[in-house]
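Quick question about two entries, pasted in order.
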Amino acid sequence: MHIVRHFPRQIHEEEDWITLADGCRLAVRIWRPMDAEREPVPAILEYLPYRKRDLTAMRDAQSHAYWAGHGYAGVRVDIRGSGESDGVLRDEYLQQELDDGVEILKWLGQQTWCTGDVGMIGISWGGFNGLQIAALQPPELKAVITLCSTDDRYADDVHHMGGCLLGDNLSWASTMFDANTCPPDPMLVGERWREMWQERLEGSGLWLAKWLKHQRRDDYWKHGSVCEDFSRIRCPVYAVSGWADGYCNAVFRLLAGLEVPRKGLVGPWSHKYPHLGVPGPAIGFLQESLRWWDHWLKDKDTGIMDEPMLRVWMQESVPPSARYETRPGRWVSEPSWPSPRIDMQPFRLTSGHDLLPMTTASTLPENHDETPLTIRSPLSVGLFAGKWCSYNAPPDLPHDQRDEDGGALVFQTARLDQDIEICGQPVVELEIEADQPVAMVAIRLSDIAEDDKATRISYGLLNLTHRDSDEHPQPLEPGERYHVRVLLKHIAQQFPAGNAIRLSISSSYWPLAWPAPAPVKLTIHPASSRLLLPCRSPQPQEEAALPAFAPPEAAPPLAKTLVQPSQETWRVIRDLANDQTTLEVINDEGTFRLDDIDLELSVRITERYTYAYSNYDSISGWTQWERCFRRGDWEVRSVTRTLMTSSAESFRVRATLDAYENDSRVFAKSWDEEIPRDLV
């Protein structure tokens, strides 16, 4: 990455508070041109609970200072109850958070250094609330860039997929369990820090138990889901994600559903800003964002809206790996979405495990029959799936799918005689039955190389009780046939000549998704089942005319001293003597010191997902976060642990929180809650 040290305008940086109407003070960090009082500038707001002073300080300094140097005020605000802001954070995207955001925008519009025009940007949480606040139509908000976020909190968030409960629901709840234990910095808030900290420790609550009480798409998830009424958003939106991210589907729904000027960008990246994007190639996203802000906040003709609505990275075939540094491919575009240039090509499933293009009846082999096929997958299917949302890629991407396919029904094309490119959302239509009232189906689409290595391209899940509705699921009648549609993740991928396309169907996908209450046998009727691929013809002249993205650049990073290096491991542990299997994930982020504020930070995260052979009552997920802040003789530590188990009837969550000041434990609390399963 190129570090820019000299900007068109000199930068002034300050930390302050915004006092809201109810007296609550929100901590804010502002980077703006030194001459902004004389020549006011638009503001760019990022509004997060991730602690501007330390946890996101490195990233914030490189992006917000960059915008400030180009004539904007970069504004980073900690949500109520986080960082140095007053209050307690009790859940995601509460109405209080959104109302506070509207007040922040009003405050910004009244500052003498601001023109009154504001944009919002954010990745993940900040991408969510940018859309949600836009739907409230505050007059100051003129444009949004939303990254790695969603329009639908039930269909495409860290909690559920296809009505199935995601393993990342536990992982993410543990992340926020830890975040809510972090104290404000005494250097800023003074002696109030201890009182504020105790209030958070006592009041934030166990979010996992709260989420588990909403297993279907009820009003809880509809709140903050802007897809409920896209017309509420009346400012332009730039939606960005990556193929390795969990949120790429939302880009396409936003392009199709919004009525305002809009653009979409999807690269090969995981849950990262594109100028920091891995797998690469990373791009000059901060320059791209300036083109967007200059157009909508300064009324400059940057040409950005003359370019295609959608740009995506067309991935080329690669061997399977949990750690891609880069994904080979090329940028392609579509002038609109949905694109009239993309055709859904059907492939039929056969009892002989073929995947045949549905062109003419003559494509069926002479010995073709329509015998139903059954599958009762072992719980090991999913151990090599990686994360639903890749945060730390590498190494949390899926590995060779041959490790999974032994427990799945597999259908495969012949070796391709020409390249096939897809761009969009693959769909699988199944005629299916189950022998249990609650069942799930997991479907994977893989690229099979000439050496038979299998690289997962896309996948989808469906809780079959949600076949007709996420809001009103219905149990299955064992033995009854159902026609269901399983939506896979959007993807742009080239399958080269000589490779094959594989469709794999399983009845479980643990620990990416929590299994059904009991083992399930699925019966697939191939004659009435098919795969639909969104096929796209290359447009070489159009692609050659696309302007290239600039190389990544950013403002200088904060001074940081490494005290202890980080390390990360993913291990599948098979204890054959006891028929027990564990996926263990360790992410030790090491220890580093932020030199400017003389603050040392460290965190170590451990996750274990376990089962005993075919015993569904043995399934468990366990997480532990160990966090420490240190400055001189001041040290604060917290340890949070969460254990989630299940029976056929319920989920059980046990959790503990211990907090320490220096060598003394100053807070301890435990939870033990049981939540009935609701057709999950």
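Here is the second entry:
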Amino acid sequence: MKQNVAQKLISKHLVSGEMQAGKEIGLKIDQTLTQDATGTMVMLELEAMGIDRVKTEASAQYVDHNLIQEDFRNADDHLFLRSAARKFGIYYSRPGNGVSHPVHMQQLAKPGKTLLGSDSHTCANGCMGMLAIGAGGIDVAMAMAGEPYYVKMPKVMGVKLTGKLPQWVSAKDVILEMLRRHGVKGGVGKIIEYYGPGVKNLSAMDRHVIANMGAELGATATVFPSDNEIKDFLRQQGRENDWMELTADRGAQYDEEENIDLSELAPLIAKPSSPGNVVPVAEVAGETIYQSYIGSSANPGYRDFAIASEIVKGKQIASGISFDINPTSRQLLEQLVENGHIANLLSAGARMHQAGCNGCIGMGQAPATGRNSLRTTPRNFPGRSGTREDSVFLCSPETAAASALTGKITDPRTLDMRYPKVQEPKKFTTEGMLEAPPENNADVELEKGPNITTIPDFEPIKNNFDLPILLKMSDNISTDEILAGGSRVLPYRSNIQKISTFAFEIVDDDYYDNAMKKRDNGGHALVAGVNYGQGSSREHAALAPRYLGLKVVLVKDFARIHLQNLINFGILPLTFVNETDYDYLTQDDILEFRDIHETIQVTDTFDIKVKGKDHTIPVRHDLTKRHIDIILQGGIINWIKQKQK
């Protein structure tokens, strides 16, 4: 049977199930990736499971999110993560090394392998001919313990690329074009595979840009072939022996087809406050900006910074503009310094920040109130920047640099200059990017500061119960709205009791207080529209509301990773059979659940009543038998403990 790249990767790693779209499959995981916003919980989960050493070929723990050390919390967590990496046999990337996704690509990524990461943008490494998937932390912990990763077999969307990108247009515009066509739900339940003659005109890092923001389409993964471009990239890194060719068989089929002629693309921009709100830059040109920001995992390559450097070289940015430069790895930063690009940017008036995620997840660089921020980051969800009422646009480095010069959104094609040419270095030689774990971990102790607490115990869901609807929300509620990132919140990622105080504050300031009043009286339910839980893989967005008594979430549909996180922590996820019933429900309605234990095991559709009203609402679950077992045990930690008895 002729196979595309995605099918080859899945079939090679399939340990259970059949490759039929919608059916649950189990996959062997070769590599894992954790970062500090999610990794502390993963390490605590490994400790709770009694794991001595991870079973994967390579696992890496990166420190890239929580770099601001305004008190002891982040610094303590960095020490804890290093000690856990040494104890469990994990590579460790210290603060300042850079963002997990490009560093992993540089140091460990291998064509033909699977990668599971506790960060939704793990899919970026699909640029290397890998099956790279973002997941909740506990799913990653299970994979590190040697368990398969379970996911419903996705459809494969083949995107045929032809032509070559014109001047002033770059890889960011390719993924923005996909978002313009398909929106933030266009990739749900799918792997997006790019193929065709246009692929050879995209560098490995160009592919990283495109694969990274497959998460914004809601895709399970993004896959590129492993060809000579990937071989050249690995040669740059001194890892040519890790290369293998991996391409689709001639005549391979796809479940869905899309075509993009790269030569026809123009500079694009995503307006506030969704990555799917894409228009041509020319349509919004002239809007005044406060900030222009270059960097993040969505534009992490050498050329992304070098092109901006060449655009502003010998010039000055507009008065009053904050031109923020966020290098994505120490390796990259060294090369940019060596070749004069950092000097060009600083001379033009740029602000230089340390290598890491930084403002992408609201960790500094928050924009001023009521002002526009132009960013090369992957997301512009409400409040993600750190400013509650923000106005963030997503664009390419070319557009960001051009706009920094003019002080307003600018189509880079209108600049009075030739399109700069950027020469990639032939070799990157940075040493010591990853610290290998010791072979003997017998004497390694976990270093826990006072902010690191144990994971709370959760009781299983009862058979009969009534739940008040504490919040009724709209469509596309993101995990940043459920539980914000940023320097106020993320330092408490190892303290569930404290981090829960920030839950849903962007949606309702009173949620925490109201939830605590209900928690000891049976808990509460939430209602929302479509694409609930889009965005980050942070399991805290399920764990914190669970701590506050959340038992059931009823929505029109879920984002993939958040759905699994809800299940992992024993929260029952339900969808409306008739979406019009969403309009009937109001906040503070009380939902009646009866005989739930038996009901969810024998049927996927059942009725719930609204107390005091003559109305019955049919609902549906899409749970496998394994999911149901986890729910009835009160979450995956209880489930694991039960299995070990």
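Reply: The chain has a mean pLDDT of 94. Residues 465-644 form a domain with the Aconitase; domain 4 fold (CATH 3.20.19.10). Hope that helps.
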